[in-house]
Amino acid sequence: MNISKIRNEMESTNLKEVQIERHPKHININLCHYVPLFILAICICIFSFISYSLYNKINDKYLYQLKEKDNEIQNKKEQLKNINSKVFTLQKRNDLQKENTEEILASIEKEYSYDKAFYISYSMYSPKDNKGNGNGYNIIMNTHTLEKALSHFVLRPFGKARIEKIIELLEKQLSLENYERLFSFINGINSLRKYKKVYEENNWAAMSEYKIVSNFLAKYEKIKEQKTGSYILTKEELKQDYDINYKKFIKSRHSTRNYKSQQIEIEDIKKAMDMAKYSASSCNRQYIKIHYYPKGKMRQNVIDYSIGKGGLYLEGVNTFILTFDVNGLSGPGERNQGYFNAGLFATNFVNALHSLGIGTCFIQFGNSVEEEEKLKELNNIPINERIAVILFAGYYDEKSIFCMSPRKDFEDYFTLHE
């Protein structure tokens, strides 16, 4: 047992010696292998550090450039946004303008469509003329044509077709109540009387048209007399009437905005109308009407529906509405004649009022058709009349203030065509 133990210890000791002897050689071999690796590792570390530094530097540069690009893009976006906003605003404005234009054009079309329908419905030959107004105006138009034929210094037989037409129209009036008191009927009868007298004075009584007129008039001998036909004035006789300072008078009339708080007397209105009725009137039809509202709710209606009344002292205002009867208009050529005739009458009416110490101000009636129809309904204006103009008027106050309203020069109005 001891011998085995000793042997084992000896073998173990020998083995350790052998290992001790081999170990240094083994260590030398390992160091030789690891030195290049160590150097490589150091190089890799240095390279990595350099690369990392360069990378960070390059990366920072690129990040800065990217940031600059981002800022540039953001600025571009803001600019684009502003441009889009401006474009949108401009587009919106254009759309609104287009919408407003279309709305205005639609309104104009609506107003003119109404004018067309109204004219067709109530003009002289309208089937709605159940009061005979159109027929009456037709009589006056034809008798005026007869008068113009009589307005020659040398006459000849004429007008057979015209007198037959007048008789036809007069016979239609016979169905109307109090026809013998109608201006148109009286005018027609007296025009035929004048025609008959001219034929007698010229020894044309044997002609057929004379017999037609004579037979018709025999039934209406009681119709009151009225001056018709034509008459002659000399230049000296005319001069007595026109030799006045008209320019001074016409310049003294202004649009008046303050009045006495006083109702205009009916007698003064009658005097003014007696002057204004001699205004030029197409074929003497005289279809202009005046509606007077001096007080109360109807007066207020006129004020409420008036456009452009700013700056007027309304306390003393007397209100008028001037209309034209569409029953008096004939054919497409007269579609605007009512406004023209109303303007002629209105101008002479305000000048006549001015001559009586009454100031006036035109209120142009530019209202919609709905407003016109409503005002006509509220103020008892017949359906067949159209409103041409509103007139404010009143007696001149102790002091009046007027706009200067400078007028253009001759050259601005006048063009000579040679």
Describe the structure.
It is a single chain. With 418 residues, the chain is of the alpha+beta class. It has three domains: 1-122; 133-217, no CATH class; 244-405, NADH Oxidase (3-Layer(aba) Sandwich), CATH 3.40.109.10. It is built from twelve helices and four strands. It has a four-stranded antiparallel β-sheet.
Describe the secondary-structure layout:
Elements: H1 2-122, H2 133-150, H3 160-173, H4 183-201, H5 208-217, H6 235-242, H7 246-252, H8 266-276, E1 288-293, H9 296-304, E2 318-325, H10 337-355, E3 358-364, H11 369-378, E4 385-395, H12 410-413
Antiparallel strand pairs: 1-2, 2-4, 3-4
Helix pairs in contact: 2-3, 2-4, 3-4, 3-5, 4-5, 8-10
Which tags fit this structure?
single chain, 418 residues, alpha+beta, NADH Oxidase, 3 domains, four-stranded antiparallel sheet, 12 helices, 4 strands, 60% helix
> What letter string, H or E per element, gives the SSE order?
HHHHHHHHEHEHEHEH
Which structural class do you get from the secondary structure elements?
alpha+beta
CATH topology of the largest domain: NADH Oxidase
Q: Measure the end-to-end span.
A: 165 Å
Within CATH, the superfamily of the largest domain carries the name NADH Oxidase
Sheet bearing the most strands, described? 4 strands, antiparallel
CATH architecture of the largest domain: 3-Layer(aba) Sandwich
The helix count comes to 12
Low-pLDDT residue spans: 15-27
- What is the arithmetic mean of pLDDT? 86
User: What is the spatial order of strands in the main beta sheet?
Assistant: 1-2-4-3
User: Helix fraction?
Assistant: 55-70%
User: Count of DSSP E strands?
Assistant: 4
* CA-based gyration radius: 53 Å
Number of domains: 3
